[in-house]
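Exercise: predict the fold of this chain.
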Amino acid sequence: MLRSAAANQCSKPDLIHVHSTEFAAVAAAAGSLYRVPIVYTCHSMVSAGARSPAGQNQAKLIRIASRITVPSKWQAAEIIRLYPGSHTKITVIPHGVNFVSRQANITPAKLLYVGRLIPSKGIEPLIKAIALLSRNRKEVSLTIVGSGKAQYVNHLYTVARNSGIANRIHWMKKSSNDAVQRMYPSYGAVIVPSRKESFCLVALEAMASGVPLVSTLSGGLKEFVSPRNAQVIASLDSSAIARAIAAMWNNPARTKQRVNAAQRTAARYRWPAIALRYQSLFMNLKKGR
């Protein structure tokens, strides 16, 4: 890649920006070749662990980066805990949204989960919560949008079957961001039952779309989610998730207040303002070379 760039007489870059761990070696080689700052945007710690190939690549990026951008203070603290001394490199820049604020066509019992299918996302207790809710709410359903390892996805299918609600769970593979944005307004709520989140763009997108949010306050979520703008899941088990969803249904006036507050929250995260923060960071690094 670098030889091709040199052969085509590409101009020297002002900096190198990388956010995928698989490009750690390329970023390191480019930084050495061009002697320019490297910016690593770290969305989360790799789920496979620090000893995995992806974990080793992430450690390399954290070591060689001139600046590390993260979406939340919580994520910054995680990096500092695992890599002492990295605190001087870290800049917090949250994710952004294209502010939508459309009128939701709400079907209250139609629920939506969007995200990776991994254990820390709380999907298994969410499925079991749907089973609990179905005892009194016969029309309840859950659409799960995302992908994961086949073994874990098959386990989730089994959980749904054993809970007697396989027909209430609709599975969709990972979709484009535009497709997901179009989905939000037709659901009664977006459910975020995560045990750990570096930020959770899905929660912010739900807020911007005028859809009720039922969420934990795990990790970076608590930096913009609160009882003022979401129905909070008090603990990470199926009963607590079911109670939170039922509370959202049973108090429509309070839910509407939260939706309005959520849209005001989302307005603070519009992409043009977030992009300016990246621009400022890049320009300061360029001046400081």
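Check your answer against the key: The chain is about 45% helix and 15% strand.
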